[in-house]
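Sequence only, no structure available. Ideas?
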Amino acid sequence: MESPEKTPNTVVIAVGNQKGGVGKTTNTIQLAGALAERGRRSLLIDLDMTSGATKALRAPTDGWVSSYELLTGSENAEDTIITNDEEEVPLPPNVHLVPSSRKLAELDTFLAQNPWVIHQDMLLEPMRQLRGKYDYIFLDTPPQKTKTTIPALKVADYVVLSAMPDHLAVSALAEALQDIATAQKHANPQLALLGVIVCAVPRPKTRLSRELVGYVERTCINATGGTLKFHHEISRSVVVQEAQRMGRTLFQYQADHPVADQYRALARELEERLTTLKAIANGVSTPMIAEVANA
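Reply:
I predicted one. Tokens follow.
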């Protein structure tokens, strides 16, 4: 007699930054693809009105239920998911998607017409319905604070920040760290910064990329003073954009590419970090807390 399938202990991760164009969506998709190779099931929820993850996975942005219906509760959470069984949307194996849509622009109107709905709690019930069905739920958040950012930080277990060498990267990271601290204080004391992915790194490293790495290592630290920057960085390569134009992950498009191996190493590091956190979690409410040090 076969043993029943084990219920996953779902980890909810909000992926973000306060600046657009820093690889946030790319890192979310490629991490999910790398974790799929490790046998993990992931759900991506696209909370960005620009529909970056939805378009990158070649899913529809119109005519389907979306993260708008998920947030407003007009559909059950499971009914908003595009699975691997949907022939019209050939998603990567073990990766499911709640697509975004332009209807997210109507959230302000919805909240004004439904004053009993608490804005920051809009994802609480959907997450209650979806926990235990996936190993990971990734919340792909918009680059600015919008009506979907705060609910994401309210329900997430962890935040992963994405950064790439850019003159505005430092100020954007500082704002993101402050948002995490505010969410910890007012809405979700268990929320923790799991790590910072530094991506699109040129080889050899430029002065700007070295400065960014140094800033992340100094300011994104845990309670014991250790850096929360992920050790494994992602190199700049056109192969990532080529894969996304095809609606595929690197592991489907060019599995033997060095950048695919970097994402595999990053996925291993992410899971090792989670394992370590679970091992030291007894009696610790926020084992890893983002702190903004004086630069």
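The CA atoms of residues 224 and 288 lie 8 Å apart.
Hope that gets you unstuck.
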